[in-house]
Amino acid sequence: MANAITSDASRTFQRTVWWLGLAGLIPFVAASLVLVGIGINNPLADPIINAFRGYGIAILSFLGGIRWGLALVAESHQHRHDSLSLVLSVVPSLIAWCTIFMSPIAAIGTLLTGFCAQGAWDTWSAQAGKLPAWFSPLRINLTLVVALSHIVLFSLMATA
Q1: What's the pLDDT tens digit per position in 125-138?
Q2: This prediction's pTM
C-alpha cells in the first residue's frame, strides 16, 4: 500500500513539474511568435526583445540554482562533497548576468548557448543516475523549445 501511495505521489509530482516546465515556455514562445508576426522593425520589437532577454536571464539563473541545490542536498544527505558541481552551478548565472552588457543579438546567442549547455548537463546527469531518470526527457523537451525560440529571435535579429 505504501508503494502505491509513493508511486501516486511521485507521478503527481512529476506531472506538476512537467506542467510548470511547460508553463515556463510561454514567455519564450509567445515573444518569438509575436516578433514573427509584427516584425523586428516594429516599435514594439525592442521592448519584447528586452523582456525575452530578461526572462532568459532569470530562467538560466534558475536552472543553475537547481544544480546548486542538488549539490547541497548531496553533501548534506549523502555526505558526498561534489565541489565541482557546486562551482559549475554558478556558471549559468554568471553567463546570464554577462548578457546584460552585450548587444541584444549577442545576448540572445549567448543565452541560447547557455540553455543548450545546461540542458545537456542536466540530461547527462539524469542518464548517469545523478538526477531522476524522468528529468532527462523533460529537460530535452524544454531545452528544444527554448532553443528554437532563441533561434527564431536570433534569426529575425540577424536579418534586420
Answers
A1: 999 998 999 999 99
A2: 0.91
Give every CB contact of residue 70 below 8 A, 6+ residues apart in sequence.
Answer: 85, 89, 130, 131
115, 60 Cβ separation under 8 angstroms: yes
What are the backbone angles phi and psi of residue 102, rounded to the nearest 5°?
A: -100, 165
**What is the secondary structure of 43-79 as a DSSP string?**
TTHHHHHHHHHHHHHHHHHHHHHHHHHHHHHHHHHH-
Rounded to whole angstroms, the Cα distance separating 49 from 51 reads 5
Report the C-alpha gap between 89 and 146 in whole angstroms.
19
SS3 7: helix
**pLDDT tens digit sequence for 32-45:** 999 999 999 999 99
Taking each helix axis from N to C end, the angle separating 45-78 and 91-98, rounded to the nearest 10 degrees, works out to 160
Query: Do 20 and 141 meet the contact criterion of CB atoms below 8 Å apart?
Result: no
- Of the candidates 24, 33, 102, the residue with the CA atom closest to the CA atom of residue 56: 24
Neighbours of 93 (CB within 10 A): 19
Rounding to the nearest 10 degrees, give the CA dihedral for residues 108, 31, 123, 69.
Answer: 90
Residue 125 near residue 7 (C-beta atoms within 8 A): no
Question: How many residues belong to the chain?
Answer: 160
